[in-house]
Amino acid sequence: MGEVYESGCMSKKIKIWESDSGALQSSSETKDFTQGILEWMPSGAKIAAVYKRKSDDVSPSIAFFERNGLERSSFKIGESAGDAMVSCKTLKWNSASDLLAGVVSCETYDAIRVWFFSNNHWYLKQEIRYPREDGVTFMWDPTKPLQLICWTLSGQVTVRNFMWLTAVMEDSTAFVIDNNKILVTPLSLSLVPPPMYLFSLSFSSAVRGMAYYSRNSKNCLAVFLSDGSLSFVEFPAPNTWEDLEGKVFNVEISDCKTALGSFVHLLWLDVHSLLCVSAYGSSHNKCLSSGAYETDLHGSYLQEVEVVCYEDHVPDQVTCSGFKASVTFQTLLESPVMALAWNPSKRDSAFLEFEGGKVLGYASRSGIMETRTSDDSVCFSSTCPWVRVAQVDAGGVHKPLICGLDDMGKLYINGKSLCNNCSSFSLYSELANEVVTHLIILTKQDFLFIVDTKDVLQGDLALGNVYFVIDGRRRDEENMSYVNIWERGAKVVGVLNGDEAAVVLQTMRGNLECVYPRKLVLSSITNVLAQQRFKDAFNLVRRHRIDFNVIVDLYGWQAFLQSAVEFVEQVNNLSHVTEFVCAMKNEDVTETLYKNFSFSKKGDKVFQVKDGCSNKVSSVLQAIRKALEERIPESPSRELCILTTLARSDPPAIEESLLRIKSVREMELQNSSDDIRKKSCPSAEEALKHLLWLLDSEAVFEAALGLYDLNLAAIVALNSQRDPKEFLPYLQELEKMPESLMHFNIDIKLKRFDSALRSIVSAGDGYFSDCMNLIKKNPQLFPLGLQLITDPEKKQAVLEAWADHLIDEKRFEDAATTYLCCCKLEKASKAYRECGDWSGVLRVGALMKLSKDEILKLAYELCEEVNALGKPAEAAKIALEYCKDISGGISLLINAREWEEALRVAFLHTADGIISVKSSALECASGLLSEFRESIEKVGKYLTRYLAVRQRRLLLAAKLKSEERSVVDLDEDTASEASSNLSGMSAYTLGTRRGSAASVSSSTATSRARDLRRQRKSGKIRAGSAGEEMALVDHLKGMRMTDGGKRELKSLLICLVTLGETESAQKLQQTAENFQVSQIAAVELANDTMSSESVDEEVYSFERYAQKTRSTARDSDTFSWMLKVFVSP
């Protein structure tokens, strides 16, 4: 669609026609275009053409035109010194439209040049020279954007696979290749976006490759040029590079007397040794400067080059000359080497990756390649063009971690796949010893992951694609393991190690972005705190807007108390210390705000000291305040900072702050000659305004009142911008009062009742009524009032008022004791009577010196009241001891089921009582027999129902499992479908019958109350409900005999035996034993079947469990109520 139109002998135009209609769409300006060289970008965005500018008769330019015919950009083809006479023969775009290659003809050779566009600048990235007679031609692979196929007239075909390597080195220095220049930018000093740079290095020909060495205080650069020569540069210390801004250094080629070949890979082993992979035998080797030396080598060779500098390096200067290179070792390679990587764990060694992913080790000066003996299985599953070796700490031992990334985005760690969708990665070290602590992984989804190397070593991360793929659901969750990169298609080009904790990204358009992942920043803060560099930690926290509590919580706040002096001295900025103090709060932010970041890998806290104090804020601020007072010279800023520590304490120390302000104010009022002291403190007004800014003005005003300083309170009120009409009348009224009354009124306002009571007591006897009113309104003051008031009569009044208060709170027993202390016997008697303490009533009656008739009348009344309260045993005691009513006492003992005591009293006093006891005992035994039998029948029905429900539930569960359904999906109303006759089962009704042996064995009011509570607790059982199974088990457990029931039953058995009713006693014991055995056996059987997935009728037989219970549990405390004489064999 592009066409060159000749309008004259020298001028041409580009015309563009529509492909479907053939209509002319646009045309360009008239230019001196080179005939036939026109290339349309595959994406259709630009058209590349070659023309000569009118102002330049020598070097042509490549221009780029849009579809509308307008020129977009251009650059000269011949920009280096050796491009005096050049011409362009052809241009071709790669399939991705990001690389432009062309054959450029120079005076003595032809060259294939590859240009790249980034950030509105065209870079010459590669120049491959061929002899002119070879007539080199090329084409881009239509499917592989980075594969260039070259061939010559002699029939030699070369396939070149390019790969993008980051220009940012390990020390964060960027070396960007652009034709015969290298643009140098230390990113640790400034994040300068390309094509801008700090300074540049200029070479004699185009740069094809380079290697950078930055270890042991040495910074060297080795550069391989397109003419086959080597150049070396030695840099000064990085902290002096700012002085090199804008300079251009011309670098000389090194002296070399041997053939070097065409370098494919280049790597520093140490400061005097290079490891490289060189190709020999290609036709383009004839154009290399080293090709002048005759050599019979053909193929690829691994060779070691020794580098020597004959010039002394001048500090703070760039050394660009005086280097000599010589090949000291060569070995033929049978397989292509895909990557070289320096081994930081072993001196002068490296790793070589061959095609297919095989990794071998190389040792300098040994002249051999060796398989890794520590791990022979290290082999990537596919060829990885990008290989880096990380030195990690594995339990105190430095270990190499080989990282490889292939073309498909698979990231391998020591041969194992870690991530399947990685676009780029880098290594980060928080230390200065080259130990890598984190892997920086950027996925194709544009998520940046920060992976701890310890997690990789310990296998905590799930290897593969699961961990690094973030779907929509996981993206909504709070997940701190990754950062969402806003620029699509960005790449990780480097990191800023150490305290900077930054990741440098390069976007698709070429500019640089720097991100600070929170995980790296927190890890860096932890590392800085471990070195006790508090100022650096503070600056990191402040710069990245992290909660200041991280410093205290990561360090361990108990340990921070001991290092507070060092913290204050290192920060050495009172404004910063004040900012730190204001941020303190009583929580561990590593477990709340930053809980999703892993700190456990560091050992939980940097330092940890156990301390009994639990208030973090108050303790830390107290330590800061003490350090300020001891180590910082007096100044207004220091005083304000101290006030801040007091105001931010928990709770705020407002009164102490006001006392410091009060002392400054008194010093100002004294007009003392101590000018130095005045200059070291802020004015009282300034300090007060600072305090009011930190705290609630109302709280400060009340604290000033609490100091009983009315002038200070007035100053606080005025500075808090309160209306004088609101506070002046109140303060004037207080000023007119006596001191004690003023204190009393202030304490009442501030609700400091203890202090108010002391103040009103000290005011004198004339205010005793006010004192009593205060105590009555605040009952907690009664003990203090008794301590402060010494007058006996007034103390008696306080005691009586206290007892009246206890009566109102229904604490009758305490009230009765208090009434006795103040000799109010009638009130004491009433209090004892209210709490049902008949013994106390009779004791107080004796103190009141009542007559015998009055005592007898009182005893009869108490006997009726106690019996009505459900205490017949105690009522019987009153009847026997005070009323002398033998028959009535025996009747009450029978009602209380105190059979043995009733029989003893009957034997002691009257024969009629014995007959009454016997008839009652026989009647009770008969009733218990029938109820025990009924309970045995209920146990059987409940157990049968439970087994049926359990069996049906297990069958349903098995059916659902076979259908691969969940039991949870089943409706609760259909969970149990078993049916049975429910008649006679009181648990399924309102529960009008008693369901346990305790209820049948005790008919007293206490037993009935227990029965009602148990019935309310157990509730009804709804047939077919989801909870029916557990309800049946709980009901069976609730039918057990209580301790009170057992005691009453044993007492009844002894009574029957004493009265000669042995047969009745034996029958009652056997029936009760049968019930208890049935209940215990049923509960054990139900518990066993609950944990079983099947109910076998032979294994879970009620008869087996009953027999086992009868044989094993009979001698236990459970059956201790039984009389041994009636125990069956």
From TrEMBL:
Broad class of the protein's primary localization: cytoplasm
Keyword tRNA processing: yes
InterPro entries, sorted: A-sol_ELP1 (IPR056167), Beta-prop_ELP1_1st (IPR056164), Beta-prop_ELP1_2nd (IPR056165), Elp1 (IPR006849), HB_ELP1 (IPR056169), TPR_ELP1 (IPR056166), WD40_repeat_dom_sf (IPR036322)
Residue stretches making up the ELP1 TPR domain: 743-904
Keyword Nuclease in annotation: no
Limits of the ELP1 three-helical bundle domain: 917-1074
Keywords: Cytoplasm, Nucleus, tRNA processing
PANTHER family: ELONGATOR COMPLEX PROTEIN 1 (PTHR12747)
Function: Component of the elongator complex which is required for multiple tRNA modifications, including mcm5U (5-methoxycarbonylmethyl uridine), mcm5s2U (5-methoxycarbonylmethyl-2-thiouridine), and ncm5U (5-carbamoylmethyl uridine). The elongator complex catalyzes formation of carboxymethyluridine in the wobble base at position 34 in tRNAs.
Family to which this protein belongs: Belongs to the ELP1/IKA1 family.
Name of this chain's protein: Elongator complex protein 1
Organism of provenance: Camelina sativa (False flax)
